[in-house]
Queue: 2 jobs
Job 1
Amino acid sequence: MKFTIDREQFLKGLMIAAKAIGSKSPIPVMSNVKIKMCEKGLELTGSNSEVTIQTTIPFRIAEKEIIRDENFGETLVANKFITEIVRRLEGQEVTFEVLDETIAKISDGKSDFKLNSVKAEEYPDIDLEMIGAKFQLSYVNFKELVDQTAFAASTRDQRPILTALNLEAVDGELTATATDSARLAKKTIRLDEKLSFTANVPAAVMTEVAHLLDDDDSLITIAISEKKVVFSLNGTLVTTRLVNGEYPNTRHIVPHGFSYFLEANSQELIAAMERVSLLSVDRENVVKITMTEDSVEISTKSSQVGSATEKISTFQYTGDRLEVSFNSSYVMQAIKAAKCEDVTIAFLGEMKPFVIKNVKDESHVQLVTPVRTY
């Protein structure tokens, strides 16, 4: 096996595959990247047994030759070392050659490295076949779907189902829902296909896929079967197992018939919360918002540190006087996800879940549960 390749493209491919390789792999052979030269180009595969990423570097990109002098073959090389070597080489091209099936030689004509390599047959078989419910989204729509929901998923393993982003397709609409039981984020987009399925995809994987490329003109193809999901985008395949279990029923959880409404400038509200949160020492970053038609005030109080208060200058409030305490991090993330200049927050009462939304975007809603303070 041998090839000469554009160094930048090689590094880009190695870094994409490396996103799936854990720092401490439970299976030692999976700390390697699988390098395969074939008729498609150079295939680079990384996996931690839960998530697998395979990216293919083509022989040519537009008019530019990327790979030359190739001999087909495959091998396994320690991901940590090959990525750093290619990153630090100074030549525009890198030559990679396997000697005696046990040594990988990497050179740019100036520097020479020899790494121990492992036979590719020792790598586990990974199923990357795209089967099941299959649909396409623009990369822009996919990123928006993930950015507006995935942050609300749980990062704790006590209830694994809450670490997933629930995807449900009904009548040509795809709804993504995330909740950690204290908040909820939901986004709906139209599909070209009339599909019917529900799947619990690890939210962390969805986030990784959403930020894998910087090419907003791309299409992403998604295939969801009974136990796995496969994403295909610009020569890269990502697959992961679905999270087992039944997702909580959130269909009727978003309340209606609100009595109090606050409309405020998103940036001003976030900045005020960031400032008063400086004195919030508890784990939940609790702040209190006090609202009347004449003033809106954000405050926090700590017996150990002190107190802080800030008034909002640009707002419109409808309703009687209301005080609500909440986790400021949750509300700031929800406001950022709403992606609007002026955000609307609708309340039912002091201890009832409240809704954060962009009134110009009915496809997206955020729900946050207040915190009881004494």
Job 2
Amino acid sequence: MTQPFALFIRAEKSLAFDISDRLGFEMETDALAVSIFEDGPNTMAVQALFETEAQALACLGYLKLPNNIEHFVTQLPDEDWVSLSQSGLPPVRAGRFFIYGEHDADKIPKDAEHPIRIEAGMAFGTGHHGTTKGCLLMLDDMISRGDAPRRILDLGCGAGILAIAAAKGLNKAVIATDIDPDAKSVTEVNAKQNGVSQLIDAHVADGFDSPVLKDQSFDLIFANILAGPLMGLAPDIANALAPGGQVVLSGILDELADDVSAAFGAQGLSISPQPSLSGWTSLLGIKKPDQTAGS
């Protein structure tokens, strides 16, 4: 592909990540690649590539951005911009996990116990910001402690990184769910190329009333979403945790961490904030061993 049209959007962090998520997984778009990167102390830039200007403008219309959000569409020079977008993302090390693209296959450290190959077509799901890395570091700590959860859920799986990491690191079966069918397909492709497709059961599911999750109980839940949806799901997530179970909460801007902690604390969970990574806080929630559903 040569000379694609790029839609650029600049916004504050939480809105920028919401836009990238919508472009990457929630909307039916013709985007060839979606990337997000820091563009100032408090802002991020989102870039989506399209084959035609009409596709870029149509996508912009679907987004219905506020009038004060800076955005424009432009044609890029004659380059392989999809490949360049992927090669611009460096590998990510998180304890025993190493997230990389095919272009960095020669950079896998010898001591990386669990390398995970994720291509960067949709950058929000590649592990290249603090939310996913925070989850991986918590999983790494669990493995170091010898935790052995039997039933695992990756809620809002995106590209499937956390499901793949749990399958590799714990050698356990994982249910991965997302509201978007594309996320299910991407997760299945990534699971296959990482050799754990037999351990990952991916589904399209909108919340815990979906047949695949209804009345299910889990020892470990990953919920790397955003603060607002997490707080709304707090009762359902707490109810789905087995006594003594753990939930890894992420996608939380530092300034919203107390609100999310309070929402899950109100459900009886013990909450431990983790160190901030690039402005994002992850939380570990633990259900009391003697706590029953709804108490």
